[in-house]
Amino acid sequence: MISKPFSQACDNNRGPILRVLQQYLKAPGTLLELGSGTGQHAAWMPHFLPHIHWQPSDLPERLPGIRAWLADNRPANVADPLVLDMAQPWPSLACDYLLTVNTFHILAQDDVARAIQHAGEHLPAGGLFVVYGPFNYDGRFTSESNARFNDWLRQQHPASAIRDIEWVCAAMNAAGMTLEADQAMPANNRTLVFRRTAEE
Ligand SMILES: C[S@@+](CC[C@H](N)C(=O)[O-])C[C@H]1O[C@@H](n2cnc3c(N)ncnc32)[C@H](O)[C@@H]1O
Questions:
Q1: What was the pLDDT predicted at 1?
Q2: Does any ligand 1 atom lie closer than 6 A to the CB of residue 33?
Q3: Which end of the chain has fewer CB atoms within 10 angstroms, the N or the C?
């Protein structure tokens, strides 16, 4: 078994994100987590959301790390992680909720657009897509630290960048989802809650 990967950001944001999920995920259902990363969220949050069946997913190279976290402390309501590339056609699976944390600034914008399109196809009417991360407003960074983070991101990968919330909302609208909430989070992040409003 490989050692558990660790993300400090994940450890810092798990409590604030959980509080938003507890506010919006009232009805029992299945949550598909996109880009689960280390697996820290999947190994912790579902303990406090017993009515939610949690399905972690990520690119294949991430699955051993997620499994290592789940092997240590697996909530009863978490499924084995599955391979899911957000930008490629998704496996057929039923879900009521989607969650993605800190992925929209990692994926290239075209891939984010594809992921949003797939999300719209998978969510039933009334389903929620919860998206956490940094976003720009009116084409501007919301803080100096976000501007520096964006420079760092682009050095890592030129296609990575903090996205404009207006662009995200337009892509979501085109996929049948509308913004229901935009909550300020610690460290200049936001949690966006989109609801699937119509069958396309
Ligand atoms: C910054 S990490 C965030 C991970 C985790 N959600 C967290 O909060 O710590 C970005 C994640 O996006 C995943 N990722 C990148 N491209 C992806 C894609 N095309 N499909 C699915 N996941 C992807 C990476 O493997 C990584 O786990």
A1: 65
A2: no
A3: N
Query: Whose alpha carbon is nearest atom 12 of ligand 1?
Result: 35
For the cut 90, the answer to whether the pLDDT of residue 198 exceeds it is: no
Q: Using CA atoms, how far apart are residues 95 and 66, in angstroms rounded to an integer?
A: 20
Q: What angle separates helix 165-174 from helix 109-122, to the nearest 10 degrees?
A: 40
CB atoms under 10 Å from CB of 26, counted, come to 8
CATH number at residue 126: 3.40.50.150
- Evaluate if residue 4 carries a pLDDT over 90: yes
Q: 147 C-alpha vs ligand 1 centroid, how far in Å?
A: 21
Kindly write down the DSSP assignment for every residue of 84-143, as one continuous string.
--TTSPPP----SEEEEES-TTTS-HHHHHHHHHHHHHHSPTT-EEEEEE-EEBTTB-SS
pLDDT digits (tens, 9 = 90+) for 181-196: 999 999 999 999 999 9
- 138 found inside a domain: yes
Whose Cα sits closest to atom 1 in ligand 1?
A: 102
In a domain, 5, yes or no: no
Q: Is the pLDDT of residue 2 over 90?
A: no
Q: What is the total count of domains within the chain?
A: 1
Assigned domain for 99 exists: yes
Q: 87 is in which domain, residue-wise?
A: 13-21+29-196
In a domain, 6, yes or no: no
pTM for the full predicted model: 0.98
